[in-house]
Amino acid sequence: MTTDESPTENKGQPGFVPAALSGLCPRCGAKTLFDGGAQLADECAACGLDFLKLERGGRFVGVVTMLLAVVLIMAALGMDEWLRPPLWASLLFWGPVTVGSVIGALRLYKAMWVYRGYEERQP
Ligand SMILES: [Zn+2]
What we know:
Bound molecules: zinc ion
Shape: elongated
Oligomer: single chain
């Protein structure tokens, strides 16, 4: 985080990306947004905020995952072409990278919709 100490923006909300990655509830800041992995929880266990209702973009999750997979495969092919690593090295590298980026992207994506939905409901 850099400079979000501005007086106009002290609603006590954490930065979006760190909040999304650690799955913080947009209302109370508890780590309740995800039910483990990239599975969105139904509601906040701490304050009862209904995440599912806020997450209206959920049906596009499949598209996002597919796009990400395509990007990763292209990157993998490009790197293969360029470095020609041994197969075990490729697997060792791309296995965790793929899993990590898919989960990370899904968390960011779902959290983005929940946060947007939440902010739109503010007076
Ligand atoms: Zn909450």
